[in-house]
Specification:
Layout (H helix, E strand, L loop, with lengths): L1 E6 L11 H4 L4 H11 L4 E6 L3 H11 L5 E5 L8 H9 L4 E5 L21 E4 L4 H9 L2
Parallel strand pairs: 1-2, 1-3, 3-4, 4-5
Helix pairs in contact: 3-4
Length: 137
């Protein structure tokens, strides 16, 4: 099974940015632990702060992977383009958020990804990624 995790803006700062909201672990460290827990899964990771680069990666993975775990971060609430990219591909996408977006500012209650996602995992910290991964197993 071939799964890619695609992370959007500012998630490269996990472990440093707002640890009370996002925790103290870097995503790179967390990713290594996921690879160790699921050694039989071909698991890859991509992060960009640039909307167009995220769309390109979704399109690239969207016809050759078994699943995409997507945390588009702030672009979730603003990017029609990312929502359209998810809609255009055949690979199932699980939308992930580390924090409970519904417990935050009201603009975070809107997602352009959710209508086109296979499912959504919200608010379980970094564990949200593992829960999404398990949905593909």
């Amino acid at each position: 099974m071939k799964i890619i995790i695609i992370n959007g803006p500012n998630l490269n700062l996990l472990g440093k940015r707002e640890p009370d909201v996002y925790g103290a672990t870097s995503f790179e460290d967390y990713f290594v632990s996921l690879q160790q827990i699921y050694p039989t899964i071909d698991l890859s990771y991509y992060q960009s702060n640039v909307e167009g680069e995220l769309i390109t990666k979704i399109q690239e993975a969207g016809f050759s992977y078994d699943g995409i775990i997507l945390n588009a971060a702030a672009y979730t609430h603003t990017s029609v383009g990312i929502g359209d990219a998810v809609k255009a591909i055949i690979t199932p996408v699980i939308e992930v958020h580390i924090s409970n977006t519904f417990a935050r500012e009201s603009f975070r209650h809107q997602s352009f990804i959710s209508p086109n996602a296979k499912g959504i995992v919200i608010g379980f910290g970094l564990k949200s990624y593992e829960l999404a991964l398990q949905s593909f197993l």
